[in-house]
Design brief:
The structure holds two protein chains of two kinds. By secondary structure, chain A is mainly alpha-helical. Chain A folds into four domains: 277 residues, no CATH class; 36 residues, no CATH class; 268 residues, no CATH class; 43 residues. Chain A is built from 30 helices and two strands. Chain A has a two-stranded antiparallel ribbon. In chain A, helix 5 packs antiparallel against helix 23 and helix 13 crosses helix 14. Chain A is globular, with a radius of gyration of 31 Å. Chain B is mainly alpha-helical. Chain B has one domain. Chain B is 75% helix and 3% strand. In chain B, strands 1-2 form a two-stranded antiparallel sheet. In chain B, strand 1 and strand 2 form a beta hairpin. In chain B, helix 3 packs antiparallel against helix 4. Chain B is globular and about 75 Å long. In chain B, 67% of the residues are buried. Classes of the chains: A mainly alpha, B mainly alpha. Chains A and B meet through strand 1, helix 7, helix 8, helix 28 and helix 29 of A and helix 6, helix 7, helix 9, helix 12 and helix 14 of B.
């Protein structure tokens, strides 16, 4: 199966075209093609995973000798890697390199470079194949109910397919160029789906904002990819990583390239300061928000960093220097996003800012060298966040609104299934033991505590813990407004149908249990410990394994962060459920009011971007450029034309009237009487024109030669 | 074997002059026989495409850097001008583009010739134009090249001046004189080149060989290149010589705009790669930073001007200024990547912007206006047309997976590492500016799309009957749309053809230029 995994993205790609051209004629308007394609893709992704696990545990015989040579070489260079306390079997495996499975064909030739397109299948790719197809399949099923009866139902499924295909293509991309292509394709799917209801200007505005903000980040991606291409001589991801690790590429080059690429991460993965499009993107249908803007597309930035980790590891000196841009961006985003989640009334916006904040955790983890923790968090987050989004969709399906404070409340009674899945996923997000978020967030915190030499990254651990506290509080607030208290909406809300509820339960179950795939070795027998790390972390010379260490499970941090999370829940519980605390402080206290205003205005980023930068470029700047064009450049042209006309008339009337019929005048007259000139030209004027032009040209040419 | 011999001796000549011959036949047919004229014009362009296809099928793509189908006969002995023609990896994609676009234009006009109708004259002019364009792409002698280059001018002048919009006379005369001004300087350069190399020949490959052997002062070379730069640069058009373009495009009839955007602009960029750079590599290296600078100014400037437009067609016209900036940036790097990108950019821009002008024409025909404020909700009134507009706008903003990307990205890529002798710092600054230009492209195109296609129709058109894509439109558009997609997915279709020749040019510049 591993050699043929490239089929997986092709299935939804084919389904896109099939739905587009034939969807409307089918009984279920094309959704059946989409579901079938993604369903098969999911099955194949599962098969790929099984083969991959086998591939990791039993490397193919053909590579055995080669690998041993590599291993020996490596262990000689590294001296004995620290394996104290670890089980022998594990230790043995850690030393093995696991060859990625690759396939490639020529894409195009250019200047002696044979540029390939292909598949690079290794741990992270295999993991992402599973996540993307699984969430996509559930979202497909959910959507048949949620957008049922929509006027662009077929079109919606077509673009879900195209998105899935592009995302899977991004996941298995073998080269940075291929990654870039898929990166923009997922962006365009996001654009189309955010603007799904484009009759409303607000929706098309959100779509444009998403696309253009991402383009800003793409400038960084384009330049980063270009820098890497010229310094490595190839777009190939493995070659790039190898070159970054073995010192072929100068450190400064890697640093510049990683900073450029970070701009792309900021836009695609909603990191400060390019995050502003993501909350607006909630204008799209909720299944889209779950699939694209929570579970898959927005993690493309994290995945890209994970993929090119050697570049970032070396370029930013992760693990040796105390802070770096990646960790800072992530850290700021964790707190900035969580802060904004507090003041939202729209349930989807709470989740959107929560996503921003959680993506911040992943970026921060990558920035401090906790690669596995970052991807593990990506993995668990995909499930519980998709569950939360789909849950919010289920709620809005019942109350026809996303406004928690105006139209919700007390829904626990009406929608028990939605409530329980939402509650489980929230608990997973908050990090309640033993749900998924607990394990993955804890690993990030442990990483911040232990990596980076002697406590250099402690500040990020504090950020992470504060973030956990805030997460707990705003999720409690959300649950209060949505499911408890009195119902404030209209009509009689009712539980959603099975096509909505079943995906919710599956995702809630996954969100509850996903953490168990990477149990710390301290808490679990070796056969079940650290399975995620074991199977999905790349082991080879293209991954910075040499000076790469994993954080150990720390009981103190685990307990501490849980207590702080519970404290967040408790405080929010007391504030909202019990009505305790200084309510109304934002009206009485100036400082609190100021802080609240800043939050409500989203730190004024939108004012800066939309009202200042974009409005000025679109308005005064563009207009003055055009004014310059019409009144300066064109004035010169027209002036020349008028001068020539005057000169021509003068020549014609005063000097040449009887001799030549006036070529200059002829062309001026042509403006007035096109047809007449046509006849004149066919009756001998062509030769005149030609002779004159050649004569004049010869004189000028002679002048150049004589006088230069 | 005989067949092949015939093809290689006569194939190109027949292809080039068949449209002209057809035009002559049509001159003899009375003007009232409109249907006959239409049919005949279509048959002629299809036959031309057939001959062209036979030639292109016989072309040896493995040796695209060698001139093939060469014919070299005396023509005007007095000045040693020769009838020298031939094609290589640079000509082939552009010939293919021309052969494709012309029949599509005739199909598109099938039922709606612009006022004042007169299909006979309209079609005859198109056919003359056809010969001029094909001739320019096969000519290997500077005088022959110049003649074809100028032949193109007149029919386009009349197409705009007679069948154009309200300000057609101003636009057509501006187009004609502006371009003629460039041509005059160009022919000065050609003649100067002829004299300084000993007055032996105008044949391009011979000149390429002769220039290094002749003892030409650096200043002379720079001046000669400068003349060509103006001649070709005006045609491209490069900032600041672009102001004829928006007027010509806005006023021209739909088919005129399509041909202008799809093929005529490429004569300029083609001239740079065919004539100016290989003959005067040393001067090219000196000029390159200036060309690159104007190119990136054009990218941003054109994009900003787009944002200020209120007329859809004028906006598309300004987007050409921006897009051709990428092509010129690729050329200015003088590298294999850059030149390949430039040819790809020409083909992609031809298909995409040609398509945009088709769409603008169809919108105008239905709404009788192109005022962006008055449009809106095209997706509701004519969904298929709205989707095609969206697809084409995405292609135009350089979405990967569609053709436009492969003209832009390699051009940006190549400016990181320009040819030896060029300043890396300068070109890296250009690279960043050009990359920022892609953001602007997304801005003005999507904003246009939002205002015209999204939303709901304005009050005046709520109940208007807006037909969706018609049958002739489908026939004219589908080949272009499919090619945009196919080239986007598999760019090697173009790169494979151009790479050999472009690498040869880049190597030549690298060897001679510094």
């Amino acid at each position: 199966m591993l050699d043929y995994a490239w089929i997986i993205p092709l299935l939804p790609a084919a389904s896109f075209f099939l739905i587009l051209f034939f969807g409307k004629k089918l009984p279920r308007k094309g959704s059946e093609i989409g579901i079938a394609a993604v369903g098969i893709a999911f099955a194949l992704a599962l098969a790929t995973n099984v083969s991959w696990w086998d591939h990791v545990d039993n490397p193919p015989a053909g590579h055995e000798t080669e690998q041993e040579a590599v291993v020996e070489g490596e262990s000689a260079a590294v001296a004995t890697p620290a394996q104290e306390g670890g089980d022998e079997a594990v230790a043995e495996e850690e030393e093995h390199t696991v060859e990625p499975v690759t396939q490639e064909v020529t894409w195009f030739e250019n200047g002696g470079h044979d540029i390939k397109v292909g598949m690079l299948l290794d741990g992270p790719a295999v993991m992402m194949l599973l996540v993307v197809t699984a969430v996509s399949l559930l979202v497909h099923i959910y959507s048949t109910d949620y957008v049922g009866g929509d006027r662009r139902y077929t079109h919606f499924f077509a673009f879900l397919s195209l998105f899935t295909a592009s995302m899977l293509g991004l996941v298995i991309a073998k080269s940075t160029l291929q990654l870039l292509v898929m990166w923009e394709l997922v962006g365009v799917c996001s654009f189309v789906l955010i603007g799904h209801w484009w009759e409303e200007k607000a929706n098309s505005d959100a779509a444009l904002k998403a696309f253009i903000t991402n383009r800003v980040g793409d400038v960084g991606l384009i330049i980063g990819v270009i820098i890497l291409f010229w310094s490595v001589g190839s777009f190939d991801i493995i070659e790039t990583n190898v070159a970054a690790l073995d010192g072929t590429v100068a450190h400064s080059t890697l640093l510049i390239a990683s900073c450029c690429l970070i701009a792309a991460v900021m836009s695609k993965s909603g990191q400060f300061i390019l995050h502003t499009w993501l909350p607006d993107a909630m204008a799209g249908p909720t299944p889209v928000s779950a699939l694209i803007h929570a579970a898959t597309m927005v993690v493309a930035g994290i995945y890209m960093v994970a993929r090119l980790y050697a570049v970032f590891f070396e370029g930013l000196s992760i693990g040796t220097s105390s802070v770096n841009l990646l960790a800072i961006v992530g850290g700021v985003t964790v707190l900035g996003g969580a802060g904004l989640a507090f003041v939202q009334n729209d349930i989807k916006k709470v989740l959107a800012y929560s996503t921003v904040s959680q993506l911040g955790y992943m970026v921060m983890a990558l920035g401090i060298g906790a690669w596995t923790a970052a991807l593990f968090h990506l993995f668990t987050h995909a499930f519980f966040k998709a569950c939360l989004f789909l849950g919010s969709g289920s709620v809005s399906h019942a109350v026809h609104s996303f406004d928690m404070r105006k139209d919700m409340g007390g829904l626990k009674k009406w929608m028990p299934q939605t409530f329980w899945t939402f509650a489980i996923a929230s608990a997973a997000l908050i990090g309640i033991f033993p749900l998924a978020g607990f394990w993955s967030k804890d690993e990030i915190l442990a990483g911040a505590n232990q990596l980076g030499g002697s406590g250099h990254y402690t500040v990020f651990m504090i950020i992470g813990i504060v973030g956990a506290f805030m997460t707990a509080a705003y999720m409690t607030r959300t649950i209060w407004y949505t499911f408890f208290g009195e119902f404030r909406g209209h009509g009689h809300p009712h539980e959603s149908g099975p096509r909505i509820v079943i995906p919710l339960w599956i995702l809630a179950a996954a969100g509850a249990t996903a953490g168990l795939v990477n149990l710390p070795s301290a808490l679990s027998p070796d056969s079940t410990a650290l399975r995620f790390e074991h199977f999905f972390e790349p082991k080879g010379n293209y991954f910075p394994a040499v000076n790469f260490s994993h954080p150990e499970f720390s009981l103190a941090i685990a307990v501490g962060s849980t207590i702080i999370g519970l404290a967040g829940v408790t405080l929010a519980y007391l504030w909202y459920f019990r009505g305790l605390g200084p309510h109304g402080i934002t009206e009485r206290n100036r400082l609190a009011r100021g802080g609240y205003t800043v939050l409500v205005n989203k730190y004024y980023f939108d004012v800066l971007y939309t009202d200042i930068i974009v409005a000025d470029v679109k308005g005064p700047i563009a207009r003055s450029v055009y004014w310059f064009n019409q009144n300066v450049i064109d004035a010169v042209v027209n002036g020349c034309g008028q001068f020539a006309t005057v000169l021509g008339r003068f020549t014609y009337e005063r000097i040449d009237q009887q001799v030549v019929d006036g070529a200059v005048n002829g062309s001026a007259a042509a403006a007035e009487e096109g047809g007449q000139i046509f006849r004149q030209l066919t009756s001998g004027k062509v030769q005149q024109y030609g002779a004159l032009l050649f004569g004049a040209a010869a004189i000028f040419a002679g002048a150049i030669i004589l006088f230069v | 074997m005989d067949n092949n011999q015939f093809l290689s001796d006569w194939g190109l000549t027949i292809m080039v002059f068949l449209p002209l011959a057809g035009a002559l036949v049509m001159l003899l047919i009375p003007r009232t026989e409109e249907h006959l004229h239409r049919t005949l014009a279509l048959v002629i362009t299809l036959a031309t495409a057939g001959v062209g296809a036979a030639v292109l099928a016989d072309f040896d793509y493995g040796a695209s850097e060698t001139l093939q189908f060469v014919v070299n006969k005396p023509w005007i002995d007095v000045i040693n001008a020769r009838y020298a023609i031939g094609i290589d990896g640079l000509s082939v994609p552009l010939i293919g583009l021309t052969l494709l676009i012309m029949p599509l234009c005739i199909i598109y006009s099938w039922n709606h010739f612009p006022e004042p109708r007169n299909p006979k004259a309209f079609l005859i002019l198109l056919l003359v134009l056809h010969t001029g364009m094909l001739g320019t792409f096969v000519a290997q002698d500077l005088i022959l090249f110049f003649v074809f280059f100028e032949v193109v001018l007149l029919p386009m002048y009349f197409l705009i001046g007679v069948w154009g919009g309200e300000q057609r006379q101003y636009a057509s005369i501006k187009f004609f004189l502006f371009t003629l001004f460039g041509s005059a300087l160009m022919i000065v350069s050609f003649l100067a080149l002829f004299f300084v190399t000993g007055g032996e020949t105008f044949v391009i490959p011979d000149l390429i060989r002769l220039v290094p052997e002749s003892d030409i002062s650096r200043t002379t070379m720079l001046l000669i290149f400068g003349g060509m730069f103006l001649g070709f640069g005006i045609k491209v058009p490069m900032f600041p010589f672009h102001t004829w373009l928006p007027d010509a495009h806005t006023q021209a009839p739909t088919v005129g705009s399509v041909i202008l955007a799809a093929i005529l602009l490429k004569l300029g960029t083609y001239g740079f790669i065919r004539v100016a750079i290989p003959i005067l590599p040393e001067a090219a290296v000196s000029w390159a930073p200036w060309i690159g600078g104007l190119a990136v100014i054009g990218i941003i400037y054109g994009a900003l001007a787009c944002l200020a437009q209120t007329d859809m067609k004028r906006l598309i016209a300004f987007s050409s200024v921006s897009h051709m900036g990428f092509t010129m940036l690729g050329i200015a790097t003088l590298t294999d990547f850059g030149l390949n990108a430039a040819v790809m950019g020409m083909v992609a821009h031809g298909l995409i912007t040609g398509m945009l002008f088709f769409l603008a024409g169809s919108v105008k025909e239905r709404y009788h206006t192109l005022d962006i404020k008055r449009l809106g909700g095209i997706l509701l009134k004519a969904p298929r047309m709205g989707w095609i507009l969206g697809f084409t706008a995405m292609a135009s903003l350089g979405l990967p997976g569609l053709a436009g990307f492969w003209g832009e990205f390699p051009a940006i890529l190549s400016s990181y590492q320009p040819a030896p002798g060029l300043s890396e710092v300068t070109f890296r600054v250009y690279m960043v500016v050009a990359a920022v230009g892609t953001v602007f492209a997304a801005g003005y195109l999507l904003w246009l799309y939002q205002r015209t296609a999204f939303g709901t129709p304005t009050d005046e058109f709520v109940d208007a009957d807006i037909p969706d894509v018609t049958f002739p439109e489908w026939i004219a558009w589908v080949p272009m749309l499919v090619l945009i997609l196919v080239i986007g997915i598999y760019p090697n279709l173009v790169f494979h053809v151009t790479d050999g020749q472009m690498t040869a040019v880049a190597d030549w510049v690298a060897a001679m230029g510094s």
